[in-house]
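Notebook p. 47: complex prediction with adenosine monophosphate.
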Amino acid sequence: MLNIVLFGPPGAGKGTQAEKTIEKYNLIHLSTGDILRSELADQTVLGLEAKKFMDKGELVPDEVVIGMIETKIDRSTDTKGFIFDGFPRTTAQAEALDRLLLKKETGISAMLMLAVEHDELVKRLLNRGKDSGRTDDQDISIIENRIRVYNNETAPLIDYYKQQGKYHAVNGMGTIEEIFQRLCYTIDNL
Ligand code: AMP
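Predicted complex, structure tokens below:
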């Protein structure tokens, strides 16, 4: 299987690139942010509980997102692999993901880190906020908090995957197509 962690700060383009990548390589896209937003749209208990964290740009508790990913992986039989987008975001999540994949006799093939400058992230998020109506993309203090949470809690995963020899940095500046070509080049040379 080809199991890829698409990594990077909020606004790095993970969702956009994941959509293109799943199409080319025939994979399943698992985005914890998308799953949480769909739970919220359905007004489920999980969605309403998660909203309290999402509105502040804080992380939803590990056990909640790990449980969600476990359900999705278990239900996805017969796939060539997964693109994980916005997950894992903490060491506990990365360890849980390794355990879940091991149960399926597979593992993470690579972690691809989309590197984007801070000001470009803020610009992209504010633009997305206008287009999508996402409230956490419309408020500059929530945006800055999400970038701070990424730097403090999520960026340490770079070392986690470096130690496993799975870390690959990809330049995330430029057009969608340019970035996609860089991602494909990295995947094809794994
Ligand atoms: P995203 O769509 O990835 O930007 O996620 C939007 C929000 O959902 C984040 O700011 C968090 O509040 C929450 N979230 C998404 N994925 C995770 C995760 N893996 N762990 C904790 N919280 C998450």
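Notes: DSSP finds nine helices and five strands in the chain. Residues 10, 32-33, 36, 53-54, 57-60, 65, 86-87, 89, 93, 146 surround adenosine monophosphate (CB under 6 Å).
Next step: compare against the earlier run before touching the bench.
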